[in-house]
Amino acid sequence: MKYLKNRSFQRDLKNNDLDDEDLKIVLDDVFDGMATPLGCKIYKIRGAKEGKGKRGGFRSLFFWKKDEFIVFCLLFAKNEQDNLTSDEKKALKILSNEYDKLAEDEIQGRINKKTFMEVKYVKESKQ
C-alpha cells in the first residue's frame, strides 16, 4: 500500500505549518475508521494541529483505492471553510476518476516526476 500526497496538498501542508508527521497521525485515524466517505472513493477526515487539537485543526480530503494507495488531495484549515463548494466537488470527482485508473507504473512515474510525494507510513496492526 502506498501513501501519497499530490503537489497541491504538499503546498497546503507547508502553508499551514504541517508536515508528514501530522499526516501519519491522520493515517492512524483513517485506519481507526474515523474518515467520512464522500462518494467516488473520496474521504474527509479532521486532523489536529499540534497544540490546538481538532477544534483548531484542519480537514484533509483523500482518494482511497482500498489495498492499493491513498492520495491526499485537498487540505484546508477548519476555520477557513465548513464544506466543499460545488466546483470543488466537481474537481474532486474528476480527480477521483483519474486516480482510480492509475496503474502501479503510472504511480511510480508520478513519484519520479514529483507530481506525487510518498509518505513513509507503516500501519500498525491491532492486537
Chart the SSEs and their pairings.
Elements lengths: L1 E5 H9 L4 H12 L4 E4 L2 E8 L3 E13 L3 E9 L8 H15 L3 H9 L3 E3 L9
Parallel strand pairs: 1-5
Antiparallel strand pairs: 1-6, 2-3, 3-4, 4-5
Structural summary, described in words:
The protein has 127 residues and is α+β, with helices and mostly antiparallel strands. The protein has one domain. The chain contains 4 helices and 6 strands; from the N terminus they run βααββββααβ. The protein has helices at 7-15, 20-31, 86-100, 104-112; strands at residues 2-6, 36-39, 42-49, 53-65, 69-77, 116-118. Strands 2-3-4-5-1-6 form a 6-stranded mixed β-sheet, sandwiched between helices. β3 (42-49) and β4 form a beta hairpin. The mean pLDDT is 90.
Task: Provide tags for this entry.
4 helices; 6 strands; alpha+beta; 127 residues; 35% helix
What is this entry, summarized?
Helix content is 35%, strand content 33%. The protein is α+β, with helices and mostly antiparallel strands and 127 residues long.
Q: List the strand order in the largest sheet.
A: 2-3-4-5-1-6
Question: What is the overall pLDDT average?
Answer: 90
- What class would the helix/strand composition place it in? alpha+beta
Low-confidence stretches: none
